[in-house]
Design goal:
The longest helix has about 55 residues. By secondary structure, the protein is mainly alpha-helical. It is globular, with a radius of gyration of 25 Å. Helix 2 packs parallel to helix 9, helix 3 packs antiparallel against helix 4 and helix 3 packs across helix 11. The protein starts with a helix and ends with a helix. It contains 16 helices and no strands.
């Protein structure tokens, strides 16, 4: 059996077990599982992966690339991703601009990179995530507060400054970032995994093994997609994925010497699910607006929750599909074709809706014209009879 297909079936089986456990695990219990993954298992995997790479100045390009991607997607979310939303629904458009450019690779991407590409690729992905975290934690918070101040009567600049300082501190204190800092320091002084005491090596290796099954079980247990706006959200996520495929293809065309592993990393990392951090920023703004008694909210919180609920399973399926068909997705032409196809398909429901609306308006105008004509004839007939 093909290696990629075999790995895919193994991963899907564990996700299936997670689905079976949904009824036995309360929703609030998932927070504990998530904490173990992000604070213990994933940092251990990243630490081991980092200590296997050779520290070079050229590695700085990875966080810069991720940050550049975030900024490009921010512009795309304004002019392309939100194009199918109602023109007068600004709260939904702002919500899309906050969520869709962000990435959460820890739960949706890193476990699959380890399985399919190995530790070296994971180390590069972890470095890239530093740029993504700067965007999600700091830049998106500044954007959210900018929108709030534009629409608010009260002036909260002082609290905003303190909040930014606390966010920067949170960025440093986060376990994954602490591990990256420690790993880079050890590499700088010429140390690696073998330099650590044996009991530390064994402990870290044991914790590393936990990550993939834990994450896959979490995905299976956490998938609870709500109906209602599902069609709109699915088209937005498909359009986001399509734009991302196109950006990855352009980069692959510009640098044809990239190895297949790097091309696959370039494709799957930006396909990560939407991050929770922008939702936290939006919730903070929503709380401020409740105190201000703001009648028209800056963000649509319910819409944001539904996007987050759909984003994780959508990204998981997409990333597994890319790795399962890895022999095709190392070809930039295939990547570009996939991106264009997904963007086109994502607009079809919007055009169908617009076409149906225009037809209904034509029918209404036709009925109105007929009623006016019939009314004119009736009045004329009654005047003749009198």
């Amino acid at each position: 059996m093909n290696f990629a297909l075999q790995n895919t079936l193994e991963l899907l089986l564990i996700i299936g077990l997670g689905l079976l456990l949904q009824k036995k695990v309360a929703k609030q219990d998932l927070k504990g599982v998530k904490t173990i993954i992000l604070s213990v298992a994933l940092p251990s995997v990243i630490f081991v992966a980092l200590l296997k790479i050779k520290l070079e100045s050229s590695l700085l390009v990875f966080p810069l690339l991720a940050l550049s991607f975030n900024l490009i997607m921010l512009a795309a979310s304004k002019y392309i991703l939100g194009a199918s939303l109602p023109k007068n629904d600004d709260s939904k458009k702002r919500t899309v601009m906050m969520l869709l450019p962000s990435l959460a690779p820890g739960l949706s991407c890193f476990p699959f990179i380890v399985v399919y590409l190995g530790d070296d690729s994971l180390a590069l992905a972890a470095l890239a995530d530093v740029g993504n975290k700067i965007f999600g934690l700091i830049l998106l918070y500044m954007l959210a507060m900018h929108w709030y101040h534009l629409r608010s009567i009260k002036n909260l600049k002082a609290s905003t400054g303190s909040k930014l300082r606390s966010l920067a501190l949170a960025l440093v204190k986060e376990p994954i970032n602490m591990v990256i800092i420690v790993g880079l320091v050890l590499l700088t002084v010429g140390l690696n995994m073998e330099s650590l005491p044996l009991f530390m090596q064994n402990t870290i290796q044991s914790l590393k093994i936990l990550m993939t099954p834990l994450v896959l079980l979490f995905i299976g247990m956490a998938v609870r997609i709500k109906s209602g706006e599902f069609g709109v959200i699915l088209s937005l996520l498909a359009r986001r994925a399509g734009i991302t495929f196109c950006l990855s293809a352009i980069f692959a065309f510009l640098f044809p010497a990239l190895t297949p592993a790097l091309i696959l990393l370039l494709v799957v990392f930006p396909q990560s699910a939407c991050s929770f951090w922008p939702f936290a920023h939006m919730s903070a703004v929503s709380a401020l607006e409740e105190n201000d008694e703001q009648k028209i909210p800056t963000f649509d919180i319910n819409f944001a929750v539904n996007i987050l609920a759909c984003s994780l399973p959508f990204s998981t399926i997409l990333i597994i599909s890319v790795f399962s068909l890895s022999e095709f997705f190392v070809n930039p032409t295939v990547i570009l074709t996939t991106g264009i196809s997904m963007i086109t398909l994502s607009f079809i429901p919007y055009f169908i809706k617009r076409l149906g609306k225009s037809k209904s308006e034509e029918v209404k105008s036709g009925r109105a014209t007929y009623n006016e004509y019939a009314g004119f004839n009736t009045s004329a007939q009654s005047s003749e009879e009198s």
